[in-house]
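**Reference record**
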Amino acid sequence: MNRLTASLSAAAVAAGASLAMLTPSAVGAAAANVVQQVRAADLGPGRPWIRLQDAPSNVNRPHGIQEVSPFADPVRFNGSLHLAIAGGQQAQAAHYYTAQVPLSTVAAAELSYDSFVRTVEGGATGTAANLQLPMVCGGAFTTLSFQPQLATDSQGRAGVVPDTWQHFESTGASLWRTSRALPTDPALPAGSDSPLSTYAAECDAPGDGVIGLIANVGRLGDVEASLDTFVDNLTVNGTTYDFAVEGLAQGLMVLNRGSQDRPCHHASHPCPRTRGGTASGFVSFTDPADGPEYRAVGTRFTFSNGRALVPGDLTVTANGRPLALLAGPGRTLTGVVSPAPSVGLSPNGTYRTALIVTHRDHPRRDGDDGGTGGRDGLKVRAELLATGYEPLRPTGVSTSTTVR
Protein backbone atom coordinates (compact mmCIF):
# COMPACT_ATOMS: atom_id res chain seq x y z
CA MET A 1 0.00 0.00 0.00
CA ASN A 2 0.93 3.68 -0.27
CA ARG A 3 3.46 3.20 -3.07
CA LEU A 4 5.28 5.99 -4.79
CA THR A 5 5.46 5.84 -8.55
CA ALA A 6 8.04 7.02 -11.00
CA SER A 7 6.55 10.49 -11.00
CA LEU A 8 8.37 11.22 -7.75
CA SER A 9 11.63 10.98 -9.60
CA ALA A 10 10.46 13.94 -11.66
CA ALA A 11 9.34 15.67 -8.47
CA ALA A 12 12.82 15.37 -7.06
CA VAL A 13 14.25 16.99 -10.17
CA ALA A 14 11.64 19.77 -9.96
CA ALA A 15 12.73 20.40 -6.37
CA GLY A 16 16.33 20.82 -7.47
CA ALA A 17 17.60 17.34 -6.62
CA SER A 18 19.04 15.89 -9.83
CA LEU A 19 19.64 12.18 -9.35
CA ALA A 20 22.62 12.17 -11.66
CA MET A 21 24.34 15.03 -9.86
CA LEU A 22 23.79 13.98 -6.26
CA THR A 23 26.80 12.93 -4.26
CA PRO A 24 26.86 11.19 -0.88
CA SER A 25 27.06 13.34 2.24
CA ALA A 26 27.47 12.10 5.80
CA VAL A 27 25.72 13.36 8.89
CA GLY A 28 26.93 12.41 12.35
CA ALA A 29 24.39 9.98 13.76
CA ALA A 30 25.28 10.92 17.31
CA ALA A 31 24.46 14.61 16.86
CA ALA A 32 21.31 15.98 18.51
CA ASN A 33 18.35 16.48 16.19
CA VAL A 34 17.92 20.00 14.84
CA VAL A 35 14.32 21.26 14.91
CA GLN A 36 13.25 22.96 11.68
CA GLN A 37 9.84 24.60 11.54
CA VAL A 38 7.74 24.23 8.41
CA ARG A 39 5.13 26.94 7.81
CA ALA A 40 2.31 27.14 5.28
CA ALA A 41 4.51 29.30 3.03
CA ASP A 42 7.05 26.47 2.82
CA LEU A 43 4.64 24.24 0.86
CA GLY A 44 4.22 24.72 -2.87
CA PRO A 45 6.02 24.80 -6.22
CA GLY A 46 9.68 25.68 -5.82
CA ARG A 47 9.34 25.70 -2.02
CA PRO A 48 11.26 23.53 0.48
CA TRP A 49 8.27 21.15 0.59
CA ILE A 50 6.31 20.22 -2.52
CA ARG A 51 2.83 18.74 -2.67
CA LEU A 52 1.69 15.99 -5.03
CA GLN A 53 0.36 18.37 -7.68
CA ASP A 54 3.49 20.54 -7.61
CA ALA A 55 5.39 17.96 -9.67
CA PRO A 56 4.54 18.44 -13.39
CA SER A 57 4.27 14.69 -13.94
CA ASN A 58 1.47 14.50 -11.36
CA VAL A 59 -0.72 17.13 -12.99
CA ASN A 60 -3.49 14.65 -13.83
CA ARG A 61 -3.28 12.68 -10.60
CA PRO A 62 -6.18 13.40 -8.19
CA HIS A 63 -4.81 14.94 -5.02
CA GLY A 64 -6.36 15.41 -1.60
CA ILE A 65 -5.64 17.86 1.21
CA GLN A 66 -1.99 18.74 1.85
CA GLU A 67 -1.65 21.70 4.20
CA VAL A 68 -0.21 23.02 7.43
CA SER A 69 -3.12 22.73 9.86
CA PRO A 70 -3.90 24.33 13.25
CA PHE A 71 -4.59 20.83 14.63
CA ALA A 72 -2.12 20.77 17.55
CA ASP A 73 0.62 18.13 17.58
CA PRO A 74 1.47 16.25 20.81
CA VAL A 75 4.94 17.76 21.35
CA ARG A 76 4.93 21.53 20.74
CA PHE A 77 1.17 22.00 20.30
CA ASN A 78 1.72 24.44 17.43
CA GLY A 79 -0.03 22.75 14.50
CA SER A 80 0.66 19.80 12.21
CA LEU A 81 0.60 18.61 8.60
CA HIS A 82 -2.88 17.65 7.41
CA LEU A 83 -3.04 14.89 4.79
CA ALA A 84 -6.51 13.70 3.78
CA ILE A 85 -7.93 11.88 0.77
CA ALA A 86 -11.26 10.88 -0.69
CA GLY A 87 -11.75 7.92 -3.03
CA GLY A 88 -9.00 7.57 -5.63
CA GLN A 89 -6.89 10.46 -4.31
CA GLN A 90 -3.36 10.69 -2.93
CA ALA A 91 -1.84 13.29 -0.61
CA GLN A 92 1.76 14.00 0.27
CA ALA A 93 4.35 16.59 1.18
CA ALA A 94 7.94 15.90 0.08
CA HIS A 95 11.26 17.50 0.99
CA TYR A 96 14.30 16.72 -1.17
CA TYR A 97 17.96 17.03 -0.25
CA THR A 98 20.61 18.70 -2.36
CA ALA A 99 22.91 15.70 -1.84
CA GLN A 100 22.36 12.01 -1.36
CA VAL A 101 22.77 10.54 2.10
CA PRO A 102 23.83 6.89 2.48
CA LEU A 103 20.95 4.76 3.72
CA SER A 104 23.24 3.32 6.40
CA THR A 105 23.71 6.85 7.80
CA VAL A 106 19.97 7.53 7.81
CA ALA A 107 19.23 4.15 9.40
CA ALA A 108 21.77 4.74 12.17
CA ALA A 109 20.09 8.01 13.24
CA GLU A 110 16.63 8.47 14.72
CA LEU A 111 13.78 7.79 12.27
CA SER A 112 10.41 8.71 13.75
CA TYR A 113 7.20 10.66 13.36
CA ASP A 114 3.89 11.42 15.06
CA SER A 115 0.66 10.18 13.49
CA PHE A 116 -3.04 10.85 14.08
CA VAL A 117 -5.96 9.29 12.17
CA ARG A 118 -9.32 11.00 12.58
CA THR A 119 -12.39 8.81 12.47
CA VAL A 120 -14.73 9.87 9.66
CA GLU A 121 -17.83 8.21 8.28
CA GLY A 122 -16.82 5.83 5.50
CA GLY A 123 -13.15 6.24 6.37
CA ALA A 124 -10.57 3.51 6.06
CA THR A 125 -9.44 1.75 9.24
CA GLY A 126 -6.17 0.17 10.25
CA THR A 127 -4.00 2.43 8.11
CA ALA A 128 -2.29 5.81 8.48
CA ALA A 129 0.11 8.16 6.74
CA ASN A 130 3.54 6.76 5.90
CA LEU A 131 6.96 8.23 6.51
CA GLN A 132 8.80 7.56 3.24
CA LEU A 133 12.41 7.63 2.11
CA PRO A 134 12.82 8.23 -1.65
CA MET A 135 16.17 6.79 -2.71
CA VAL A 136 18.37 5.25 -5.34
CA CYS A 137 19.39 1.60 -4.96
CA GLY A 138 21.57 -0.13 -7.50
CA GLY A 139 20.90 2.73 -9.89
CA ALA A 140 17.13 2.28 -9.62
CA PHE A 141 14.73 4.75 -8.03
CA THR A 142 12.43 3.48 -5.29
CA THR A 143 10.62 4.65 -2.20
CA LEU A 144 10.82 2.91 1.17
CA SER A 145 7.66 3.32 3.25
CA PHE A 146 7.42 2.80 7.00
CA GLN A 147 4.45 0.53 7.79
CA PRO A 148 2.63 1.86 10.89
CA GLN A 149 -0.05 -0.82 10.68
CA LEU A 150 2.70 -3.41 11.25
CA ALA A 151 4.49 -1.45 13.98
CA THR A 152 4.20 -0.84 17.72
CA ASP A 153 4.08 2.76 18.92
CA SER A 154 6.08 4.28 21.77
CA GLN A 155 3.32 3.45 24.26
CA GLY A 156 3.27 -0.22 23.31
CA ARG A 157 0.13 -0.19 21.18
CA ALA A 158 0.16 -2.41 18.10
CA GLY A 159 -0.88 -0.95 14.77
CA VAL A 160 -2.94 2.17 14.10
CA VAL A 161 -5.17 3.48 16.90
CA PRO A 162 -7.74 6.02 15.62
CA ASP A 163 -8.32 9.45 17.20
CA THR A 164 -5.06 9.20 19.14
CA TRP A 165 -1.64 10.73 18.61
CA GLN A 166 0.89 7.93 18.19
CA HIS A 167 4.66 8.20 18.10
CA PHE A 168 6.30 5.69 15.76
CA GLU A 169 10.05 5.16 15.75
CA SER A 170 11.84 2.83 13.38
CA THR A 171 13.72 0.03 15.13
CA GLY A 172 15.84 -2.82 13.87
CA ALA A 173 12.71 -4.94 13.49
CA SER A 174 10.53 -2.29 11.79
CA LEU A 175 9.35 -3.13 8.28
CA TRP A 176 9.74 -0.79 5.31
CA ARG A 177 8.04 -1.45 1.96
CA THR A 178 9.77 -0.86 -1.36
CA SER A 179 7.67 0.64 -4.15
CA ARG A 180 9.90 -0.82 -6.89
CA ALA A 181 11.65 -4.10 -7.49
CA LEU A 182 15.30 -3.71 -6.53
CA PRO A 183 18.23 -5.28 -8.43
CA THR A 184 19.70 -6.76 -5.29
CA ASP A 185 20.96 -10.27 -4.59
CA PRO A 186 18.58 -11.80 -3.83
CA ALA A 187 16.14 -9.51 -5.63
CA LEU A 188 13.62 -7.59 -3.52
CA PRO A 189 10.27 -7.51 -5.37
CA ALA A 190 8.03 -4.44 -5.47
CA GLY A 191 5.70 -4.31 -2.47
CA SER A 192 7.91 -6.50 -0.27
CA ASP A 193 8.66 -5.60 3.35
CA SER A 194 12.11 -5.70 4.93
CA PRO A 195 14.01 -4.03 7.79
CA LEU A 196 16.12 -1.03 6.81
CA SER A 197 19.25 -3.04 7.54
CA THR A 198 18.43 -5.30 4.58
CA TYR A 199 18.17 -2.37 2.20
CA ALA A 200 21.23 -0.67 3.67
CA ALA A 201 23.34 -3.76 3.10
CA GLU A 202 22.25 -4.03 -0.54
CA CYS A 203 21.94 -0.35 -1.52
CA ASP A 204 25.56 0.74 -1.05
CA ALA A 205 26.81 1.10 -4.61
CA PRO A 206 28.28 4.42 -5.80
CA GLY A 207 25.38 6.77 -6.45
CA ASP A 208 23.03 4.96 -4.05
CA GLY A 209 21.44 6.87 -1.21
CA VAL A 210 18.42 8.66 0.27
CA ILE A 211 17.39 11.84 -1.56
CA GLY A 212 14.80 13.22 0.87
CA LEU A 213 11.72 12.35 2.90
CA ILE A 214 7.98 12.27 2.26
CA ALA A 215 4.83 12.25 4.37
CA ASN A 216 2.37 10.31 2.25
CA VAL A 217 -1.19 9.01 2.17
CA GLY A 218 -1.48 6.72 -0.83
CA ARG A 219 -4.52 5.67 -2.81
CA LEU A 220 -6.53 3.06 -0.95
CA GLY A 221 -7.64 -0.32 -2.24
CA ASP A 222 -11.27 0.68 -1.74
CA VAL A 223 -11.92 3.45 -4.28
CA GLU A 224 -14.82 4.74 -2.19
CA ALA A 225 -12.89 4.94 1.10
CA SER A 226 -11.39 8.10 2.57
CA LEU A 227 -8.65 8.77 5.11
CA ASP A 228 -8.14 11.86 7.28
CA THR A 229 -4.71 12.08 8.93
CA PHE A 230 -2.28 14.45 10.61
CA VAL A 231 1.48 13.98 10.96
CA ASP A 232 4.24 15.99 12.59
CA ASN A 233 7.77 15.94 14.01
CA LEU A 234 9.16 13.87 11.16
CA THR A 235 12.71 13.08 12.24
CA VAL A 236 15.16 11.96 9.56
CA ASN A 237 18.91 12.37 9.17
CA GLY A 238 19.36 14.48 12.27
CA THR A 239 16.53 16.96 11.61
CA THR A 240 13.04 17.12 13.13
CA TYR A 241 10.54 18.84 10.84
CA ASP A 242 7.96 20.68 12.95
CA PHE A 243 4.87 21.76 10.98
CA ALA A 244 3.51 24.87 12.68
CA VAL A 245 1.01 27.68 12.34
CA GLU A 246 2.08 31.25 13.01
CA GLY A 247 0.30 32.06 16.28
CA LEU A 248 0.05 30.61 19.77
CA ALA A 249 -2.48 31.06 22.55
CA GLN A 250 -1.78 33.79 25.12
CA GLY A 251 -2.71 33.72 28.80
CA LEU A 252 -4.09 36.39 31.11
CA MET A 253 -4.62 36.15 34.89
CA VAL A 254 -6.48 38.74 36.97
CA LEU A 255 -6.75 38.25 40.76
CA ASN A 256 -8.05 41.02 43.01
CA ARG A 257 -7.44 40.78 46.72
CA GLY A 258 -10.16 41.18 49.35
CA SER A 259 -9.84 41.20 53.15
CA GLN A 260 -6.37 40.93 54.68
CA ASP A 261 -4.14 41.95 57.59
CA ARG A 262 -6.37 41.73 60.62
CA PRO A 263 -4.98 41.57 64.20
CA CYS A 264 -4.96 38.41 66.25
CA HIS A 265 -5.56 38.48 70.02
CA HIS A 266 -5.40 35.82 72.71
CA ALA A 267 -7.19 36.00 76.07
CA SER A 268 -3.94 36.10 78.02
CA HIS A 269 -1.43 37.63 75.59
CA PRO A 270 -1.32 39.13 72.08
CA CYS A 271 -0.69 36.74 69.15
CA PRO A 272 1.88 37.50 66.46
CA ARG A 273 0.44 39.44 63.53
CA THR A 274 -1.16 37.17 60.93
CA ARG A 275 -2.17 37.60 57.34
CA GLY A 276 -5.03 35.96 55.53
CA GLY A 277 -7.61 36.84 52.95
CA THR A 278 -9.19 36.07 49.63
CA ALA A 279 -8.28 36.90 46.06
CA SER A 280 -10.76 36.35 43.24
CA GLY A 281 -10.69 36.76 39.50
CA PHE A 282 -10.10 34.64 36.44
CA VAL A 283 -7.58 33.02 34.13
CA SER A 284 -8.13 33.09 30.39
CA PHE A 285 -6.28 31.69 27.40
CA THR A 286 -7.07 33.33 24.07
CA ASP A 287 -6.18 31.76 20.74
CA PRO A 288 -5.47 34.11 17.81
CA ALA A 289 -6.92 33.62 14.34
CA ASP A 290 -3.69 31.99 13.19
CA GLY A 291 -3.24 29.88 16.35
CA PRO A 292 -3.42 26.14 16.98
CA GLU A 293 -6.47 23.99 17.67
CA TYR A 294 -6.06 22.58 21.18
CA ARG A 295 -8.15 19.51 22.07
CA ALA A 296 -9.68 18.73 25.48
CA VAL A 297 -8.04 21.57 27.37
CA GLY A 298 -7.45 22.08 31.07
CA THR A 299 -5.40 24.24 33.43
CA ARG A 300 -2.67 23.39 35.93
CA PHE A 301 -2.33 25.90 38.76
CA THR A 302 0.86 26.22 40.80
CA PHE A 303 0.97 28.23 44.04
CA SER A 304 4.21 29.31 45.74
CA ASN A 305 5.44 31.95 48.18
CA GLY A 306 9.07 31.17 48.95
CA ARG A 307 8.39 28.73 51.79
CA ALA A 308 6.83 25.30 52.08
CA LEU A 309 3.10 25.45 51.48
CA VAL A 310 0.88 22.65 52.71
CA PRO A 311 -2.61 21.89 51.36
CA GLY A 312 -4.26 23.37 54.46
CA ASP A 313 -2.75 26.79 53.75
CA LEU A 314 -5.00 27.45 50.75
CA THR A 315 -8.58 26.89 49.73
CA VAL A 316 -9.10 27.25 45.99
CA THR A 317 -12.35 27.29 44.04
CA ALA A 318 -12.27 26.98 40.25
CA ASN A 319 -15.44 27.52 38.25
CA GLY A 320 -17.42 27.26 41.50
CA ARG A 321 -15.96 23.90 42.53
CA PRO A 322 -13.28 23.10 45.13
CA LEU A 323 -9.88 22.46 43.57
CA ALA A 324 -7.91 19.57 45.09
CA LEU A 325 -4.38 20.68 45.96
CA LEU A 326 -1.31 18.46 46.16
CA ALA A 327 2.24 19.14 47.26
CA GLY A 328 4.33 19.97 44.19
CA PRO A 329 8.01 20.40 43.47
CA GLY A 330 9.91 23.29 45.01
CA ARG A 331 7.64 23.64 48.08
CA THR A 332 4.61 24.47 45.95
CA LEU A 333 0.97 23.42 45.78
CA THR A 334 -0.59 22.33 42.50
CA GLY A 335 -4.08 21.61 41.24
CA VAL A 336 -5.56 20.72 37.84
CA VAL A 337 -8.84 21.94 36.39
CA SER A 338 -10.19 19.40 33.94
CA PRO A 339 -13.39 20.37 32.08
CA ALA A 340 -15.28 17.92 29.89
CA PRO A 341 -13.21 16.36 27.05
CA SER A 342 -15.43 18.21 24.60
CA VAL A 343 -14.02 21.55 25.78
CA GLY A 344 -11.31 22.69 23.40
CA LEU A 345 -9.61 25.91 22.36
CA SER A 346 -9.78 26.81 18.68
CA PRO A 347 -8.51 29.80 16.71
CA ASN A 348 -10.38 32.99 17.67
CA GLY A 349 -11.56 31.29 20.86
CA THR A 350 -11.09 31.83 24.59
CA TYR A 351 -10.92 29.32 27.43
CA ARG A 352 -11.65 30.90 30.82
CA THR A 353 -11.58 29.68 34.42
CA ALA A 354 -13.06 31.64 37.35
CA LEU A 355 -10.79 31.44 40.40
CA ILE A 356 -11.10 32.20 44.12
CA VAL A 357 -8.05 31.72 46.37
CA THR A 358 -8.44 31.92 50.15
CA HIS A 359 -5.43 31.60 52.42
CA ARG A 360 -5.84 30.98 56.12
CA ASP A 361 -4.46 33.00 58.99
CA HIS A 362 -1.57 31.48 60.91
CA PRO A 363 1.22 32.73 63.19
CA ARG A 364 4.44 34.07 61.75
CA ARG A 365 6.78 31.32 60.58
CA ASP A 366 10.51 31.66 60.61
CA GLY A 367 11.71 33.49 57.53
CA ASP A 368 8.40 35.04 56.39
CA ASP A 369 6.01 37.80 57.32
CA GLY A 370 3.51 35.48 58.95
CA GLY A 371 1.17 35.05 56.02
CA THR A 372 0.50 32.54 53.33
CA GLY A 373 1.33 35.38 50.97
CA GLY A 374 4.88 35.26 52.29
CA ARG A 375 7.38 38.07 52.16
CA ASP A 376 7.09 38.30 48.36
CA GLY A 377 3.38 37.55 48.11
CA LEU A 378 1.53 34.50 46.82
CA LYS A 379 2.66 33.59 43.30
CA VAL A 380 0.03 31.93 41.12
CA ARG A 381 0.93 30.31 37.80
CA ALA A 382 -1.57 28.85 35.32
CA GLU A 383 -0.51 26.58 32.46
CA LEU A 384 -2.69 25.60 29.53
CA LEU A 385 -3.03 21.83 29.18
CA ALA A 386 -4.36 19.90 26.18
CA THR A 387 -4.53 16.38 24.83
CA GLY A 388 -1.29 15.18 23.26
CA TYR A 389 -0.10 11.59 23.49
CA GLU A 390 -2.16 11.55 26.69
CA PRO A 391 -4.82 13.86 28.16
CA LEU A 392 -3.93 17.10 29.93
CA ARG A 393 -0.33 17.54 28.79
CA PRO A 394 1.58 20.84 29.10
CA THR A 395 1.39 22.99 25.98
CA GLY A 396 4.09 25.46 26.98
CA VAL A 397 1.55 28.31 27.22
CA SER A 398 1.29 29.88 30.69
CA THR A 399 0.55 33.05 32.62
CA SER A 400 1.22 34.15 36.19
CA THR A 401 0.63 36.85 38.75
CA THR A 402 1.48 37.66 42.37
CA VAL A 403 -1.08 38.40 45.07
CA ARG A 404 0.39 40.76 47.70
Remarks:
- Helices lie at 7-14, 103-108, 196-202.
- The mean pLDDT is 86.
